Amino acid sequence: MTIELSIKEKKIFEKAKDFSISNFTSEKRKWKGCDKSFKDAVKIFSDNGYCGLGLPLELGGQGYNFLEQALIYEGLAYGCGVLSFLIQAHNNVTREIGTFYNTSREIKELVPDMAAGKRINAFALTEESSGSDPSSITAYAELKADCYHIHGKKKWIVNAAEAIHFNVMVKDGSPNSHNILMILLDRNTPGLTIGKKTPIMGLSTMSCCDMEFNNCIVSKKRMLSVKGYEEVLTDIDAASVFVPSISMGIAQRVIDLTVNYLGQRISFDKPIISRQGVQWALADLSTKVEAGRWLVYKTASLMDSRNKISIQAYENNLYAAEVAMETTTKCLQFFGAEGYTENSVLSENWALAKLLQIVDGTSEIQKIVIGRELELQANE
Known about the structure:
With 380 residues, the chain is an alpha+beta fold. It is built from 12 helices and 10 strands. It has helices spanning 7-24, 38-47, 66-79, 81-99, 105-108, 111-115, 228-264, 276-304, 310-335, 337-340, 345-356, 363-379; strands spanning 121-124, 140-144, 147-158, 165-172, 180-186, 192-194, 208-219, 223-225, 266-267, 270-271. Strands 1, 2, 3, 4, 5, 6, 7 and 8 form an 8-stranded mixed beta sheet that branches. The longest helix is centred in the middle third of the chain and has 37 residues, at 228-264. It starts with 6 loop residues before the first helix and ends with a helix.
């Protein structure tokens, strides 16, 4: 059996990579220091067909499957990892709203503008005391007549500064409920307060804000799902394809930069890359990135064939994040002070790699889930 990307798939990756390099690499843009926001980038993504990736064509999307989307995010991350991460967050919420949930006509009418990037979406799950455990959230919504009244707080919400709509997860009726709802909330909803951007280490383009709901009243027509916990697990499966593909994109970028730099940097009368110890370290990193890349492709292909991917999703998330962190750390070391300067490509990708070990379940949580799955197999 031959395992390789098709010509079409290779072209999809190369096109995304070339686009990102042309528009978003450090020397081509002014995203550093918040000169521009993610909202500015969305317009460029939209104009070039990178919004609404997973939505069907009839809903205004691009109609890409999971593998094709993974290839695109990997290519986009090669040019700018943080913007690839932010646009996948928007696209993922848009795809879920458009295809996963049995939504009202009112919500369905919003989807084409979401797919076009005219309405940016964010996913509001995390709270101060609930990160990797969605069941421990305390924000809640009470149904009174035809409206939900929402109370509580959210924290670290990605794209919150730019988002028009929020897919908000809340407990059903009270903080002690075992059922979780998903409700679509507009930015201008009375009672909703969105805090200032929280500065994120090394990632000035990223907006993370706190949210507070003080008796936010929203029509029950804005209900996305009454089975929020199950939906979150499905969302995590999708993220376990797209986020790891971003890890591989930034890891490959820093390897390529490092190889080029060490080939030119002379130390003790020889290029640094000629040292055997350096070559061995780079060989290890390159091998791990190639293995991680194909684990991403396998997981994406399983998603496309609608196979169960529970343990593969967690293995994919874990391995990709760990490889990205190891690669960016060691390559930054090779660059020395040159790589440690503020807003260098090395330092930005190192900061993003660390973030990718935390979002969508920390690496430690991934190991716990994988370990429990293996324990179940041992007891069968």
